[in-house]
């Protein structure tokens, strides 16, 4: 699978609004969490090695920071091809994932990738950390661990950004882009960043 770096989006960019269904069909959106001090919009996928590698560390990070005011919204940007969605992306498997890792945050389904397109998603795990005004604070990697490199994922880069944000600091100007699996967009549905890659 080819690796793709996350697209560069200017810090301070306002978070695009959205409403998406969870596996039970309940629609949840960015504006459902007005009191959150920080919102992490995380585009993930159950079938990608880079996502599967960090999922335990991601769940631990969620449990560490949610009491401090972080709201995570995970989004699975599936887009069924002619053969249909992968079994790992079925709503039932999404529920299983949240149960296994004791995740309290919503895990939503972007079936036509319309939200992923607006956000310029290129390589799940694609992470967008927003401050209390819902302006982009961090658009970098989770950490430097990679599949089969022997490093244990910790979320070091994202944790450092969260610590700065929750302490009232400014966004780190030097951010290392994330690396993940390439999204295969349907012809005509590619975001600009995918067309220029």
From TrEMBL:
GO molecular function, one term: antioxidant activity
InterPro entries (alphabetical): AhpC/TSA (IPR000866), PRX-like1 (IPR047262), Thioredoxin-like_sf (IPR036249), Thioredoxin_domain (IPR013766)
Organism for this UniProt entry: Azospirillum brasilense
Residue ranges occupied by any Thioredoxin domain in the UniProt entry: 9-167
One Pfam family recorded for the sequence: AhpC-TSA
Highest taxon, organism lineage: Bacteria
Protein name: Thioredoxin domain-containing protein
């Amino acid at each position: 699978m080819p690796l793709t770096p996350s697209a560069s989006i200017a810090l301070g960019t306002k978070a695009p609004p959205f409403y998406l269904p969870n596996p039970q069909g309940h629609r949840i959106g960015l504006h459902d969490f007005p009191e959150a001090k920080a919102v992490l919009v995380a585009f993930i996928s159950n079938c990608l090695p880079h996502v599967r590698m960090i999922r335990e560390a991601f769940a631990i990070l969620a449990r560490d920071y949610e009491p401090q005011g972080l709201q995570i919204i995970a989004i699975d940007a599936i887009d069924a091809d002619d053969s249909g969605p992968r079994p790992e992306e079925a709503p039932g498997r999404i529920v299983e994932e949240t149960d296994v890792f004791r995740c309290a945050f919503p895990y939503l389904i972007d079936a036509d990738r319309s939200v992923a397109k607006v956000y310029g998603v290129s390589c799940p795990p694609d992470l967008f950390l927003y401050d209390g005004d819902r302006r982009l604070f961090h658009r970098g990697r989770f950490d430097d661990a990679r599949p089969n490199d022997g490093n244990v994922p910790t979320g070091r880069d994202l944790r450092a950004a969260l610590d700065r944000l929750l302490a009232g600091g400014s966004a780190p100007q030097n951010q290392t882009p994330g690396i993940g699996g390439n999204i295969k967009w349907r012809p005509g549905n590619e975001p600009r960043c995918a067309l220029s890659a």
